[in-house]
Amino acid sequence: MRVQSDTTQEEFVGLTFIHRLCADPTAPLIVLVHGRAGSAQVMWAFERTLPERAHVVSFQAFLPDVLGGFSWWDMASDQPLEPAIMVARDRFHFALERYIELFSLQPSKLVAAGFSQGSVMLSAVMLTGVVRFDGLGILAGFVSNVGEGRLIQGRPDIFVAHGTSDEVLSVEKARKGVERLRSYGLNVNYVEEDGVGHKLGIQGMRALKEWMSRVAGFVSPP
Known about the structure:
CATH architecture: 3-Layer(aba) Sandwich
Structural class: alpha/beta
CATH class: Alpha Beta
Shape: globular
Distance between the termini: 31 Å
Largest sheet: 8 strands, mixed
CATH topology: Rossmann fold
Number of helices: 5
């Protein structure tokens, strides 16, 4: 059952969140991160792709957006983007550690998936080595220019899904990110869907579900 964070929890963790916990504290933890002008609620649109025996938490960004909802950095700002990404990275990192502490979790796997702006932030988290992910999903997003391969902790399995008709973030950005991650020796599962805009289509959702089950440890790799 999904539960909304309360004020006391949000003060401790530093971000608003909606989560679903298992009885087993060692179950895999899946972290969801929304894109620009989103909320902790919107990423639950992917719930049917998530293993039932995993903990799941969706964090909400901290900046109110002029478009409504919340964002990880101000897209209208004329300031350099990299420092803003680093601030978002640090807020996320702090929240993740505090969340795990608050609920006394000992996750056997740590998997994260971000949509659009959220995927950019998560890729910066991975590329700067502040969190060791077992799997990272980049959904209708791209790989941040921040950080580099030698800083990545472990060898996370990567999932990338992008539509060829994405009107917000071009598919070329996704392709370049895939090339970059593969150049670091990472396994990248890339799904490109013809005619799909800034979302995941049927093929992407199906592939995401299969990837989630495998990388969380519920299905053995082929």
